[in-house]
Amino acid sequence: MGDDGIVIASIAGSSVEEWEDLFNLINRSKADMCELKVSCPYAAEMEIKIRAGAVELAPMITEIAKKDLSIPFSVKLSVFNNDPVGIAKDVEKAGADAITFPARTSGLMIDVETGKPMAWSAIGGYGGPYQIGHGLAWAARLIRAKISIPILATCGIWSWEDIISYIMVGATAIESATAIAIRGYRIVNTWLREIESFMQRKGYDTLSEIRGISLEALLKPSEIQRALEDVHSKVDKKKCTMCGVCLRTCFCDAITLERMGAIVDPEKCDGCGMCVEVCPYDAIRIVRTDF
Question: Which has the closest alpha carbon to 212: 176, 173, 165?
Answer without folding.
Answer: 165
